[in-house]
Design goal:
Blueprint lengths: L1 H18 L3 H11 L4 H22 L1 H9 L21 H7 L13 E6 L7 E6 H16 L9 E5 L2 H4 L5 H9 L3 E5 L5 H14 L3 E5 H13 L11 E5 L5 H11 L3 E7 L3 E6 L6 E3 L4 E7 L2 E2 L6 E7 L10 E10 L11 E6 L5 E3 L5 E3 L1 H5 L7 E10 L2 E8 L9 H11 L4 E6 L14 E3 L2 H6 L1
Helix pairs in contact: 2-6, 3-4, 10-11
């Protein structure tokens, strides 16, 4: 308890002050905003929307042309509905126009380069201004606190720790993460039943307040916990937050039983950050109105309540490389019901879209599909990719080439795939001439014909 207090009140604020990060101030502002009236929340959000639209027209070559092509001027934005005059931003737009999307009043050195595999399997590179990147932690803090956890308390992440797998994390950062932020990372890219039991024993020693995990990783942990009759109720976890994959009610129930705590769903992306999160009422996901503006549309028209539509997101504070009306490639529905928690943030529900499969390595361990999407971060010349594990010895890597594609860019991908699964694995390259997106509009960037059988059993 004493260390929790020291971390929250002294260590973390001092670290942020030392690094020039205003996340603590942003967190206070965000938590004040969530209990404002609906009209006040909309007014604050619209002010932010107008500012970034003005900025885009004045400073971003890509948007200046985009707005002019449809005859839109920033002064035309009188209401949220006027935003529909602006065409959607697609992943293909970002891939082809990244440098044109950088604001002229920002230098490349002042920006942070990031990448996303994305739900459509298209590797996408983009920039965030460093303030946006650094202060983004406040968004996570606010929504993490909804489960009962507080800043300074221990967190275990069953997450995609590629840096841990490759042993590249610096000792300095490891110390900061463990002793200041009190975050313990378990590598979700490389797991087996033996490792899960080992991780659970570590979990019992660490005694975190909260756990964060990929949905299917949490389900896999839950199955091993149940099989081995492990009782985690004595940990008294305040909550487990799931993200990155679709959380069904069936999966939620399995995870909640195993970890003996409530499971809260979260939705976001690397491109635009945290979009929406559940509170303990579990009546849908509250939209992070301080960071994004969300539209739900079907065939270009706003959906009715409970009607499934496409998720369109505008990032309200990445001024270095703005994302305006970005097509997420996922679907959801709006809810106009008031939440029992008292927060007046808008609610979306039935978020669906991203699917990952586990791959089986040479020793029978399971590798989370997200590992393979990370291998394409920053890779140029690839329009789409898809990994298919045909059997225990063969992986088919399907490639839809883009401009200036060269087979040489796949060499490090193949090397790391073999490093992860086994040196004797055979990786077949299949060059394709059409999209891998299914008729339903969904896309599976990893498909394992081996792990699916193990998982279902």
């Amino acid at each position: 308890m004493i260390y929790n207090f020291l971390a929250k009140r002294i260590l973390i604020p001092l670290y942020y002050k030392y690094t020039g990060n205003c996340a603590v101030h942003r967190l206070r502002c965000m938590e004040n905003n969530e209990y404002c009236s609906i009209d006040e929340i909309k007014e604050k959000q619209f002010d932010k929307l107008k500012k970034i639209i003005d900025h885009c027209y004045t400073n971003v070559q890509f948007y200046k042309k985009k707005f002019d092509d449809v005859g839109f001027k920033p002064d035309d934005l009188k209401d949220f509905s006027d935003l529909k005059c602006i065409p959607y931003l697609t992943k293909n737009d970002v891939q082809k126009n990244m440098h044109l999307m950088v604001a002229k009043n920002y230098t490349i050195n002042s920006l942070f380069l990031d990448s996303s595999g994305g739900s459509t399997g298209k590797p996408t590179n983009f920039y965030k201004d460093k303030r946006r990147w650094l202060e983004g932690v406040a968004d996570q803090y606010r929504h993490d606190r909804w489960c009962g956890w507080d800043v300074g308390e221990k967190v275990v992440k069953l997450w995609g720790a590629q840096r841990e797998f490759e042993k590249q994390i610096s000792k300095k950062y490891a110390l900061v993460e463990k002793y200041i932020f009190r975050v313990y990372g378990f590598n979700a890219f490389d797991i087996s039943e033996r490792k899960i039991i080992e991780y659970v024993r570590r979990l019992e020693k660490i005694r975190p307040t909260m756990v964060m995990a990929y949905v299917n990783v949490a389900v896999l942990f839950a199955s091993v916990i149940k099989k081995n009759n492990i009782d985690l109720s004595r940990l008294k976890l305040k909550g487990l937050i799931c993200s990155a994959e679709t959380l069904t009610q069936q999966k939620r129930a399995v995870i909640e039983e195993a970890f003996a705590c409530k499971v809260l769903n979260r939705y976001g992306s690397r491109e635009v950050g945290l979009i929406a999160s559940e509170c303990l009422e579990q009546n849908g996901l509250h939209v992070n109105t301080d960071g994004v503006y969300v539209e739900i549309e079907k065939k270009g028209q706003e959906t009715a309540e409970d009607e499934i539509g496409e998720i369109i997101v505008t990032d309200l504070w990445n001024y270095g490389m703005p994302f305006i009306r970005y097509q997420m490639g996922d679907v959801a529905a709006k809810s106009f019901k008031r939440c029992g928690c008292g927060r007046n943030l808008p609610i979306i529900k039935d978020v669906n879209g991203r699917v990952s499969d586990f791959f089986v390595d040479a020793n029978g361990g399971l590798i989370h599909g997200e590992y393979f999407t990370h291998l394409f971060y920053g890779v140029e010349g690839v329009e789409q990719f898809q990994f298919v594990q045909e059997d225990t010895n063969v992986i088919r890597l399907r490639i839809l080439p883009g401009e200036n594609f060269s087979l040489s860019v796949l060499e490090p991908v193949i090397y790391k795939t073999k490093q992860c699964i086994g040196s004797n694995i055979h990786v077949d390259i299949e060059i394709c001439n059409s999209s891998f997106i299914e008729e339903s509009g969904k896309f599976r960037f990893t498909i394992s014909n081996v792990a699916n059988k193990c998982f279902n059993e």
